[in-house]
Amino acid sequence: MASNEDLVLTSVSANCETMTSEPPILTKDHGAVREICLNRPKKKNAFSLELANAFRDALIQASSDETCRVLFVRGSGDMFSAGVDLNVFSRWTESIDGYNKLHAADEPSVAGDPSAADDPSAADDPSAADDPWTTISQIVAVHETVRNCPKPTIACVHGKAVGMGMTLLPHFDLVYAANDASFRAAFADLGLVVELGSSFTLPRYLGPSRARELVYRGSLLTATEAAQWGLVTRLFDPEQLVAESLSIAKEIAQKPASALRDSKKLFAMVDESAIREAASEEHKLLAERCRSEETRDIMRSILSKTRSSGQNQQSKKGV
After folding, report:
1. What pairs with residue 262 in β-bridges?
2. What pLDDT band is residue 93 in, cutting at 50, 70 and 90?
3. Is 133 helix (H, G, I), strand (E, B) or coil?
4. What is the full DSSP assignment across 134-175?
5. Is the peptide bond before 108 cis (omega within 30 degrees of 0)?
6. What pLDDT, on a 0 to 100 scale, did the predictor assign at position 13?
């Protein structure tokens, strides 16, 4: 696999929340193939708003660049992506908890009313102070940019693809994976529901029964199963994954660009409305789940363990 040093750094992070020493996205051109690398290896390439915005910008730039004919997406470090950064959901939980404490005497509290989740941007929404729900919404909307890219898109998956890291894959035209990769949709474990239109795409690719079991149990899907069931296009040995996938990407890039573009339009026509409808309903239910006490208890527990672990590490360092 190509190292980070082999990639050309680009200024695609103009909309970042914070400045980091390492850019969230790295790119490199292989002729007419644009390689886009998710670059949060220490965070398992989990999608923060910073990474999501930078990824979206990179996709848009490549889409409008006439020298680029194929987009090739992979992750740095030891896995493709761990999904949405749980710190984002923790901020949402803390925002609601803070709102409820502030309005404890109010009758009733909006934050405790699941029916109010249909409009998370309402003026009296508990997220109004720092708008964490908008952050979540912007992150999960990345799949639309992937799906709407007019050029062929290829995902190159190594290690694990978890949560959004997995549900993003059906929006790529092709998915190549290492034969030891694994996939997991652990939404129920977090008190959440599927997103990115995957209530449609997962049954479409895996079959209804398999999709339900995958989500209900949160169990690992092996690379072999993913390929046999249709989520993954082709498998390669880990050490050959990037080279073999890039070779196919370069082959495709040699085809007439207009023919590729028009073919992609035809393929997209079949499922477009169904995906949009599924994503819209999922987003409403995701808002309700994020407001629920059940989910917030899970997030509080995760946050507490994370903070405790951080404090223990600081103590060991003498801080």
Report:
1. none
2. low
3. helix
4. HHHHHHHTHHHHHHH-SS-EEEEE-SEEETHHHHTGGGSSEE
5. yes
6. 35
